[in-house]
Design goal:
This protein is an alpha/beta fold. The chain has helices spanning about 35-40, 60-65, 130-140, 150-155, 160-170, 175-185, 190-195, 235-250, 255-275, 280-285, 290-300, 310-315, and strands at about 10, 15-20, 25-30, 45-50, 50-55, 70, 75, 85-90, 95-100, 120-125, 145-150, 170-175, 200-205, 210-215, 220-225. The longest helix is centred in the last third of the chain and has 18 residues, at about 255-275.
Length: about 325
């Protein structure tokens, strides 16, 4: 039990991506929701990753994950090719355009949580089928914090299962389009309130280059984004956000509202580094000192004081 007190368990996809952006093109690079989230979480806490890999998964990628303190013993190694995704971005880098999706071994993924990981206190469910997320949840014991991500495809095709996931997790992570779609309203605060009424403690709404908003039953926090000038590939930014968020909360063992707000900014900062290069290349070079410095920069962006009394009289 002692080893697991600050451990993060990530369940998600492991992929080989082929991506084109206005700033370059790469083929067969490491990706997947589980990979991005696990690497981000590993900056703060020991991390375990569960996901399927094919017989063609490069040994170098496996070695990279292990070098990041990411446990890989629970990976499912299946015969056949690894999951692949191909897509491109135009100058609106918030919108990915899918060219191909080859599920390959992902279509046979049946997540089994080993007994020694079922008491992991901090769990992040990456963007996978809600039915699989529910299967993972059913195997967990004594979880302190359970966060789940999703996407529009599951909202459209697995609404009932996603509804059940929301009832059982502490926080959902969605982008602004997804929460509007799921709650069927253009109003994000209203959508967040309705989603919380379904049973989760809160929802964190990712807004890409415009930051993130964290809603709980009793508070709302809007986190600014880093004013990013270097942008090459936004793939995995949301997964990096979620992984860093839960990793920081696991490291600090503090689930207070104030620390949750710090964690949201940490997630936003991690995502801002992720988009500076293709795949995990920028995160491979990232130093903790850089994270802290950029966190302070973002914290300063929202710093302002109340209107002084002398000014209030002018506004009366």
């Amino acid at each position: 039990m002692g080893r697991l007190m600050s451990t993060v368990l990530v369940v998600g996809t492991i992929a080989l991506d082929s991506i084109k952006t206005p700033f370059g093109e790469k083929r067969e690079i490491l990706g997947g929701s589980g990979v991005y989230a696990a690497v981000a979480a590993s900056f703060f806490a020991p991390t375990e990753l569960i996901g399927p890999v094919g017989s063609d998964f490069p040994a170098a990628h496996l070695a990279f994950l292990q070098a990041r303190r990411i446990g890989t013993s629970a990976l499912q190694k299946l015969d056949g090719p690894t999951f692949r995704w191909g897509g491109y971005y135009e100058y609106d880098m918030n919108q990915a355009h899918t060219l191909e999706t080859r599920l390959n071994v992902l279509s046979r993924f049946d997540p089994a949580v080993p007994e020694n990981l079922r008491t992991t206190p901090y769990v992040f469910l990456g963007n996978i089928d809600p039915a699989l997320q529910l299967k993972v949840i059913s195997q967990l014991k004594r979880t302190k914090l359970l966060i789940a991500d999703t996407m529009n495809f599951w909202i459209e095709s697995k609404r009932a299962q996603l509804h059940e996931v929301i009832k059982q997790v502490d926080f959902m992570v969605m982008n602004d389009g997804e929460i509007r779609q799921f709650m069927e309203t253009p109003n994000i605060p209203l959508a967040a309130r309705r989603l919380i009424e379904l049973g989760c403690r809160g929802v964190i709404v990712k807004k890409g280059e415009h930051g993130a908003i964290c809603f709980t039953a009793g508070s709302t926090f809007a986190a600014p984004s880093y004013p990013q000038e270097l942008l090459r590939d936004p793939t995995g930014a949301g997964d990096s956000f979620g992984g860093a968020l839960i990793g920081y909360l696991a490291k600090t063992a503090d689930l207070s509202d104030d620390n949750l707000r710090r964690a949201v900014v940490i997630g936003s900062v991690m995502a801002s580094f992720n988009i500076e290069d293709f795949s995990l290349e920028r995160l491979k070079r990232l130093k903790r000192k850089e994270l802290v410095e950029r966190f302070e920069t973002v914290r300063g962006l929202a710093g302002f004081k109340k209107i002084p009394p002398a000014h209030l009289t002018l506004l009366a």
